[in-house]
C-alpha cells in the first residue's frame, strides 16, 4: 500500500539530514521536532515539514537563575521520623534527600514558615522549643517527650530540575550543567520569561509550533541521597509552593495554610489521598494563577503567527486540562506520552484545543535501543493497547521522541512504525469527529471527579504498581469499550442530582483512598442519594473496597446495595452461610478465565438474596444483588486483560438491566471487538491480539456472521 502523508511527528537531531528525509518519506511525517538534549540544524529546519521546537519556560536558563537564587522554585518537605530518647533531639533535616537537588531555605524565617510536629500526639511544637543549626542543616528540639516521634516540615529550594536530572542520569549527560528551575510568581522571573520568549520568537522564525515543556511547575519528583527517585506524584502540586504563593493564597482565600496542609503527614497530598478542603483550595488557587500566566505567553506566540502546544507532563502542574480554567489559556494543542489506552484517552478527550497528539513508546533512548534488544516488542504492545482507545476517540496526530539516530539502527522497528503510521492515518481519516456507538453510559465515582478524567489510580503516568493495577484495569478496559464514560465526584452527587441518563456508577479502590472515598462515605446525603438512585432502577458496581469505612456496624456503607460486606474479625461469632456459587450467570456466560488481581479476602454475602458468582479461599470475589428496582455487582479486583474487559462489560449490562442489548455490535471472541459508527454507516471488527482469531460478529440488528482476522487486523464493513 502506498504510504499516505501527514499526522506524524518525527524527532530529529543535528547532522542527521539524509536519514531524516528517508524516514519522513517512509513514515509519512509532516512535522519535525527536537527533544530534550537534541537540536535541529538549519538544513533540517528547511525541509517541507512543520517545525516543533521544545521550549522551557522556567528551566534551561541558568544564566538568569544563577543571578536570582532567591527565586528558585521551592518545596515543602518533611524530615524522616525521629525518635526522642531524652529531652533533647537533634534532627538532620536533609537526611535521605539528594543535596544536589535540594537545599534548605534559610532566606525566609524558619520560625515562621517551618513546623515541628510531635507525631505521637499530633501536636505542633512551640517554635520557642526548637533551634535551627544552619551550618549543618540540623534542628535541635528542646523539651522533647522521650520515646515520641518527631518530624520537621521545612521549606526547601529545588536547585535541579527533576526531568533534566532524570534525563541526565538516564542518558549519561556527564558534565552538562544542572538546570535550575525558577518561579514565575517571583518578580524578576516573571519579567524574564516574557522578555525571553519575545526575544526567542523573533530569533526563531522557522519554528511553527512552540512546544512548551511545559509551563511553570513540575509534578512532585524528589530524589533520595542515592540519586534515585524518593517520591513521585504525577499530580503533585508540591513544587508550586513558595513563600510568595503562601502569602498570596492567604490574601485571596482569607486564611493561612499550614506546612501540614502541603506535607500531609509525609503523603504530600498524593492523588490517592482524599483531598482536604485546604488542598483543593490551594489547587484552585494555583490553577487560576497558571491559566492567567499561560495566557500571556500563548498570546505572544499567536502574535507571531505560531501555534502553542502544551506537553502533558513535566511542568504541567496547574494546567489541569479537565479543570475549570484550562479553556482560558488559549493553548492550541496538547501532546502527551501514550503508555496505554487510558493515557491515550486522557489526551484525546481533552476539550478546548484544536488538536491532540500522542507520543508513542518506546522513546528512542539507550535504555531500549541497545544491541541485542528488539524495540518492536514494546512498540507492538504499546500500539495494540492504545489502538483500542483510538477506535473510540482518535488522537489527531502521533509521534515519537528521543534520538532518531538510535532508532535508525533498527530496520525492523523502522518497518513497524511505517506500518502503524499508515494504519493510524486510515483510522483517523475514517472516524475522526464521528461519534461511536455506545451501548451503555457509565460514571466513575471518586473524590476527584472530572478533573481526573482518565487519571485514576496513576502514580507516575502509565507505570504498573502492585497496589493499583487491580483498579487501573477498570479504566483500561473502559478506554476501548463501547461505553460512554464520565467521571463524577462525591461532592457532585451530594450537591447535585445523579444524571438521569446514567446507567451505571462504578466505585473502585482500596479503603481510605480518594478512589474508594474513605470518610466521604460518612455523609448520609451521599449514601441516601445513591441508595435511592439504585433503588429506582440504577446500576452500581463496586470493585475492591467500595464505599468502605467502618461505621455503624458496616464496613461497606453500601453493603445493603452490594449484597456483600467484609469480615473485620468483629463478627466471627456469626456464621456466614451464603457461599454456594450459582451454576450459571449472565456475567460469566462466555468467559472461561478471569482474575481479580490482588483481590480481597473475607468478603461474605449478606443473605440468600445475593447471587454468589465466584467463591473461593473462603470468600466472595464476584457477586450480584437486587436492590429495589436496581442491581449491583461486586468484583474483588479487575486487572486489565481481554477476559476481564469482557467480564466488566457483561457486569455493566447486567447491572443496567440491558442484557438484551449486549450482543449489539459484538464479537464473541474476547480478543476481538466491534466498533460501530452509525453516522457514517460503517463498523470495524478489530483483532486486539498478535495472533489470528476467528469470531462470531453481531451487527446492530442481531445478525451474525463468522469472521477470520489476521494478527492485529482491522476489517471495515458497511452497515
UniProtKB/TrEMBL annotation:
Coiled coil: none annotated. Residues 665-716 form the Lacto-N-biose phosphorylase C-terminal domain. Residues 6-437 form the Lacto-N-biose phosphorylase-like N-terminal TIM barrel domain. SUPFAM superfamilies: Class I glutamine amidotransferase-like. Residues 441-660 form the Lacto-N-biose phosphorylase central domain. InterPro entries: Class_I_gatase-like (IPR029062), Glyco_hydro_b (IPR013780), Ig-like_fold (IPR013783), Lact_bio_phlase-like_N (IPR035080), Lacto-N-biose_phosphorylase (IPR012711), LBP_C (IPR035356), LBP_M (IPR035363). This is 1,3-beta-galactosyl-N-acetylhexosamine phosphorylase. The lineage of its organism: Bacteria, Bacillati, Bacillota, Bacilli, Bacillales.
Amino acid at each position: 500500500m502506498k504510504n499516505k502523508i501527514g499526522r506524524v511527528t518525527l524527532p530529529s537531531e543535528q547532522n542527521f539530514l539524509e536519514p531524516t528525509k528517508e524516514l519522513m518519506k517512509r513514515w509519512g511525517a509532516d512535522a519535525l521536532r527536537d527533544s530534550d538534549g537534541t537540536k535541529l540544524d538549519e538544513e533540517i529546519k528547511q525541509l517541507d515539514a512543520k517545525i516543533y521546537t521544545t521550549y522551557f519556560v522556567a528551566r534551561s536558563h541558568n544564566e538568569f537563575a544563577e543571578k536570582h537564587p532567591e527565586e528558585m522554585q521551592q518545596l515543602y518537605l518533611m524530615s524522616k521520623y525521629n525518635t526522642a530518647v531524652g529531652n533533647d533531639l537533634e534532627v538532620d533535616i536533609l537526611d535521605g534527600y539528594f543535596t544536589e537537588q535540594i537545599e534548605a531555605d534559610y532566606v525566609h524565617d524558619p520560625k515562621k514558615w517551618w513546623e515541628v510536629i510531635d507525631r505521637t500526639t499530633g501536636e505542633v511544637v512551640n517554635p520557642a522549643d526548637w533551634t535551627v543549626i544552619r551550618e549543618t542543616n540540623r534542628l535541635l528540639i528542646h523539651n522533647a517527650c522521650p520515646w515520641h516521634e518527631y518530624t520537621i516540615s521545612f521549606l526547601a529550594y529545588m536547585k535541579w530540575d527533576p526531568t533534566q536530572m532524570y534525563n541526565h542520569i538516564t542518558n549519561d549527560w556527564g558534565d552538562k550543567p544542572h538546570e535550575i528551575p525558577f518561579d514565575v510568581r517571583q518578580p524578576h522571573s516573571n519579567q524574564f520569561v516574557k522578555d525571553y520568549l519575545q526575544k526567542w520568537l523573533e530569533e526563531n522564525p522557522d519554528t511553527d509550533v512552540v512546544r512548551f515543556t511545559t509551563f511553570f511547575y513540575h509534578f512532585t519528583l524528589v530524589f533520595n541521597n542515592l540519586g534515585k527517585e524518593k517520591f513521585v506524584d504525577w499530580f503533585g502540586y508540591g513544587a508550586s509552593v513558595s513563600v510568595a504563593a503562601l502569602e498570596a493564597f492567604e490574601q485571596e482565600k482569607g486564611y493561612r495554610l499550614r506546612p501540614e496542609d502541603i506535607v500531609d503527614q509525609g503523603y504530600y497530598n498524593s492523588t490517592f489521598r482524599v483531598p482536604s478542603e485546604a488542598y483543593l483550595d490551594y489547587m484552585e488557587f494555583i490553577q487560576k494563577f497558571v491559566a492567567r500566566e499561560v495566557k500571556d505567553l500563548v498570546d505572544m506566540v499567536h502574535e507571531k503567527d505560531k501555534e502553542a502546544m502544551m506537553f502533558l507532563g513535566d511542568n504541567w502542574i496547574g494546567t489541569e486540562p479537565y479543570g475549570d480554567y484550562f479553556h482560558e489559556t488559549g493553548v492550541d494543542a496538547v501532546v502527551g506520552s501514550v503508555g496505554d489506552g487510558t493515557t491515550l484517552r486522557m489526551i484525546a478527550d481533552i476539550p478546548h484545543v484544536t488538536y491532540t497528539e500522542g507520543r508513542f513508546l518506546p522513546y528512542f533512548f539507550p535504555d531500549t535501543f541497545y544491541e541485542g534488544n528488539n524495540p518492536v516488542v514494546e512498540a507492538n504492545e504499546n500500539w495494540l493497547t492504545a489502538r483500542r482507545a483510538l477506535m473510540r476517540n482518535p488522537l489527531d496526530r502521533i509521534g515519537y521522541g528521543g534520538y532518531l539516530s538510535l532508532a535508525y539502527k533498527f530496520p525492523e522497528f523502522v518497518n513497524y512504525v511505517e506500518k502503524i503510521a499508515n494504519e493510524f492515518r486510515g483510522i483517523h481519516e475514517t472516524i475522526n469527529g464521528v461519534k461511536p456507538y455506545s451501548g451503555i453510559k457509565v460514571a466513575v465515582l471518586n473524590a476527584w471527579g472530572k478533573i481526573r478524567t482518565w487519571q485514576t489510580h496513576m502514580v507516575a503516568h502509565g507505570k504498573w504498581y502492585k497496589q493499583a493495577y487491580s483498579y487501573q484495569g477498570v479504566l483500561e478496559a473502559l478506554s476501548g469499550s463501547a461505553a460512554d464514560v464520565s467521571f463524577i465526584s462525591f461532592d457532585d452527587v451530594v450537591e447535585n442530582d445523579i444524571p438521569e441518563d446514567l446507567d451505571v456508577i462504578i466505585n473502585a479502590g482500596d479503603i481510605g483512598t480518594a478512589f474508594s472515598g474513605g470518610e466521604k462515605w460518612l455523609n448520609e446525603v451521599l449514601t441516601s442519594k445513591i441508595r435511592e438512585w439504585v433503588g429506582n432502577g440504577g446500576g452500581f458496581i463496586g470493585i475492591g473496597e467500595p464505599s468502605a469505612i467502618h461505621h455503624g456496624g458496616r464496613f461497606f456503607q453500601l453493603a445493603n446495595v452490594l449484597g456483600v460486606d467484609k469480615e473485620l474479625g468483629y463478627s466471627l461469632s456469626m456464621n456466614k452461610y451464603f457461599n454456594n456459587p450459582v451454576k450459571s450467570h449472565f456475567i460469566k456466560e462466555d468467559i472461561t478465565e478471569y482474575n481479580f488481581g490482588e483481590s480481597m479476602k473475607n468478603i461474605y454475602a449478606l443473605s440468600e438474596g445475593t447471587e454468589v458468582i465466584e467463591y473461593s479461599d473462603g470468600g466472595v470475589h464476584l457477586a450480584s444483588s437486587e436492590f429495589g428496582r436496581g442491581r449491583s455487582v461486586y468484583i474483588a479486583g479487575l486487572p486489565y486483560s481481554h477476559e476481564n474487559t469482557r467480564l466488566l462489560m457483561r457486569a455493566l449490562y447486567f447491572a443496567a438491566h440491558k442484557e438484551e442489548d449486549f450482543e449489539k455490535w459484538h464479537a464473541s471472541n474476547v480478543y476481538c471487538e466491534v466498533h460501530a459508527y452509525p453516522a457514517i454507516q460503517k463498523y470495524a471488527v478489530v483483532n486486539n491480539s498478535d495472533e489470528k482469531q476467528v469470531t462470531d460478529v453481531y451487527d446492530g440488528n442481531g445478525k451474525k456472521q463468522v469472521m477470520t482476522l489476521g494478527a492485529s487486523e482491522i476489517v471495515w464493513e458497511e452497515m
